[in-house]
Structures are given as structure tokens and as C-alpha cells.
Write a sequence for this structure.
């Protein structure tokens, strides 16, 4: 163990999970966050789902055609903004190259392995530390509106079942039995899949709990500190250049989501990660006599409705718009319109206009796998690129990162996720 603290840049899910895993392995740690508190960017109001059942990357075969058709269409689940094209050219070619059937299947298997490992690690951490974050372990219900989509997904799920995924196939009657609040739209769905191993929970509350755990162990979680660049010399990291000073460090973990790209570029590295904006709308449902118990995914509409305590979170969409955090009203309206198609009677009892809207930038890697571990620069580590599965993969990724830093064999084969494959 070195006496010089490892500096972790980023106090979202990946940064805090990395920091805690390092502390648990006896390493001194210092966390630096540019925002005024932990988890105020991508980890703030994501869908809240931990879903090993959904490991397939978004660059599925045929995604290129879908993206071109989405240009400028606010009603498209996956939207490509024209002005973002220049920043996506090189990355986009790699994204499309990895959308071949064989590469997509391989990436799906590898994401699933990390997701299963991470879910177990999350449960163990929750129980050992008594973490409270409105967790639910009832699973996910995925809805299908036609036979073809159901059978395609069922084929993927059956392959994953060979690696340990547990699922139940349900007809329309089974869907309503699993989630009675779907009864008003009984005729709209062909079938569904229930994944009892999935979980959900508030990622922001989880991060706040982790930050409290770190501070109780003497770890400095410094907020409102902006890192301008990395300091490197002769292939080794030497520290960080801040807006108002310098931090010396022999080991640095960059876990800053989409902002990781600019940081590692200051060290001469090109990170194959780009932002994909997602939206959510969170509404209070405390007053309702009954609320949905299960997290629901609509395969056709590409949105999720997730119970978080007394609230419901409606989340979805992917918008390639560069580093643009703006909340666009048409995209939020899409969520509202889709929610009406899943829970029309429930929607009539909720004040959706009073809900809290949010948008966050998911860090999407070009090959659908996170980038974890040391880069070509000695002492410079990454933990980013988790895309839409940041919450699902967070605890496991942090533990893999920490084991790689100290030279221990990780609890899951790390080779598919190593940052060195790209940097």
C-alpha cells in the first residue's frame, strides 16, 4: 500500500464505487468532484434499474439505418442531432463496426458477466453496510406488443439463461397477474418476460450513502473542485491541474463519465466514449391507494416505469446531441405520451405536470463495454463508458478497478473491459 492517496476524479456511481472498493482494500483515497455534491450529473435521476437481464449494447445490428432515420425526429427513441455529427464521426465508425452480429453477441455475453457479478456485489454491499436507497428486489417486467419482438428477445434471453439468467415467459394473462395495474391495457400486449433477479433503487440516494461511508472512514470527498487537466511526464501520471492549484498524485482514477474524454485528452489519449442523453420524469404517487410494484420496460416504446419508494420514475430515450445537457420539452412529452399508453388510468390520477424533469449524459463506449483499468500512461486508470448500464455495473466495476490497481485477481474475468484495449 502506498501512503500517497489515490485521487479519484468524479463522485458519481463509478467514482464513489471505485473509491470505496479501494478503501476496503486498504488504499488511501481522495475524491474530487466538480459539482457541489455527489451524483449530480448522470447518476442523479437515471431510470433507477439494475438489469443484468438487459445487457445487449445499443449498437445492435441495423443500428446505423435506425440512426439515419432518426435525424431530427423528436419522436424517435434513439435520436441523432445533426450538429452532433462532427463529434461523432470517428467514434461512430467504431460504434457501427462493432454492430456486427458476432461482435454484438460477444459484447452482450461480456456485459452480462459483469452485470451478474455487480448485482451480487451490490446486494452484499447493501446488506453489510445497511445502505438505504429505496431498493426493490422484485425484478423487471418487460412488455412486448407483437410476436416478432417477443421471439427475438426470447432467443437472446435463452442464450443468456445458459450463463445464469433466470426468467419467466408470460402471456397477457400472466402479465396482469404479475402487475395487476396493467389490466386496463390487457389487450395491447402480446406477451412479456419477468426477470426476478433484477433490482431497482435510487442511484442518487445510493451515492449519498456511499459518500457518507467514505467520509466516516476519513476519506476526503471534495466538491466544487474543477480539474482542468492531467499532469503527466515520461509516460507516468504526476497529478492534476485544478482551476486554482495543483494536486500531486502517483495514481489517478478518472471516473467522470462523459467528462472523462476531455480529461484524458489533456494527457494525449483519445477515449472512445461519447454522450447519449437520457431523460426522466419523476412524479409523486404517495396519494394513490395502489401503485405499480414492478419496474416495467416497454420493448416497443423504449421507456421504463420504475417505482422508487412513493414515487414513479418514467425514463428512456437516447439522444446523440454532444455535450448538451438541455432538457427539451418534446422529449419529455414523449415520456408522458408513452406513459399514457402503459398506465392510462394511473396517469389520470397523477399530476404529471408537477413532476421533476431531468436529463443526463450517459457515457457510451464504441464497443458497448466499459473501460476499466490502467491506460498507456502509468498510474492513470479509467472507470467509465458504461452507457445505459452505469447503475447496473457500478459496484462490480469499482471492485474490478480496485483489484486491478492493487494487483489482485478480480472476481470476474477483466480482459473484455480493460481500458488498455483502446488506450
Amino acid at each position: 500500500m502506498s501512503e500517497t492517496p489515490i485521487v479519484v476524479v468524479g463522485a458519481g456511481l463509478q467514482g464513489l464505487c471505485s473509491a470505496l472498493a479501494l478503501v476496503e482494500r486498504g488504499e488511501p483515497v481522495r475524491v474530487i468532484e466538480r459539482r457541489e455534491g455527489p451524483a449530480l450529473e448522470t447518476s442523479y435521476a437515471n431510470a433507477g434499474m439494475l438489469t443484468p437481464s438487459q445487457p445487449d449494447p445499443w449498437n445492435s445490428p441495423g443500428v446505423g439505418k435506425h440512426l439515419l432515420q432518426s435525424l431530427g425526429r423528436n419522436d424517435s427513441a434513439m435520436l441523432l442531432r445533426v450538429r452532433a455529427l462532427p463529434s461523432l464521426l470517428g467514434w461512430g465508425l467504431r460504434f457501427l463496426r462493432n454492430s456486427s452480429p458476432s461482435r454484438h453477441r460477444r459484447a452482450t455475453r461480456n456485459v452480462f458477466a459483469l452485470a451478474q457479478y455487480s448485482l451480487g456485489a451490490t446486494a452484499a454491499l447493501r446488506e453489510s453496510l445497511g445502505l438505504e436507497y429505496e431498493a426493490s428486489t422484485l425484478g423487471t417486467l418487460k412488455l412486448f406488443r407483437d410476436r416478432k419482438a417477443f421471439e427475438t428477445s426470447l432467443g437472446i434471453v435463452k442464450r443468456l439463461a445458459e450463463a445464469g439468467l433466470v426468467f419467466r415467459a408470460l402471456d397477457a394473462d400472466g402479465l396482469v397477474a404479475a402487475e395487476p395495474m396493467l389490466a386496463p391495457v390487457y389487450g395491447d400486449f402480446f406477451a412479456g418476460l419477468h426477470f426476478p433477479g433484477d433490482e431497482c433503487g435510487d442511484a442518487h440516494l445510493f451515492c449519498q450513502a456511499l459518500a457518507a461511508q467514505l467520509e466516516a472512514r476519513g476519506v476526503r470527498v471534495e466538491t466544487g473542485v474543477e480539474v482542468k487537466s492531467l499532469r503527466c511526464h515520461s509516460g507516468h501520471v504526476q497529478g492534476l491541474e485544478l482551476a486554482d492549484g495543483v494536486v500531486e498524485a502517483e495514481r489517478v482514477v478518472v471516473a467522470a463519465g462523459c467528462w472523462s474524454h476531455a480529461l484524458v485528452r489533456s494527457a494525449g489519449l483519445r477515449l472512445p466514449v461519447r454522450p447519449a442523453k437520457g431523460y426522466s420524469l419523476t412524479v409523486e404517487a404517495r396519494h394513490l391507494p395502489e401503485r405499480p410494484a414492478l419496474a416495467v420496460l416497454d420493448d416497443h416504446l423504449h421507456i421504463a416505469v420504475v417505482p422508487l419508494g412513493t414515487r414513479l420514475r418514467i425514463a428512456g430515450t437516447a439522444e446523440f446531441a454532444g455535450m448538451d445537457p438541455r432538457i427539451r420539452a418534446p422529449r419529455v412529452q414523449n415520456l408522458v405520451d408513452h406513459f399514457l399508453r402503459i398506465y392510462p388510468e394511473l396517469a389520470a390520477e397523477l399530476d404529471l405536470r408537477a413532476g421533476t424533469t431531468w436529463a443526463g449524459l450517459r457515457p457510451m463506449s464504441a464497443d458497448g463495454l466499459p473501460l476499466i483499468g490502467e491506460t498507456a500512461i502509468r498510474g492513470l486508470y479509467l472507470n467509465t463508458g458504461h452507457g445505459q448500464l452505469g447503475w447496473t455495473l457500478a459496484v462490480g466495476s469499482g471492485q474490478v478497478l480496485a483489484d486491478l490497481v492493487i494487483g489482485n485477481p478480480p472476481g470476474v474475468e477483466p480482459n473484455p473491459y480493460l481500458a488498455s484495449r483502446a488506450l
Summary: The first helix runs from residue 13 to 24. The longest strand covers residues 273-284.
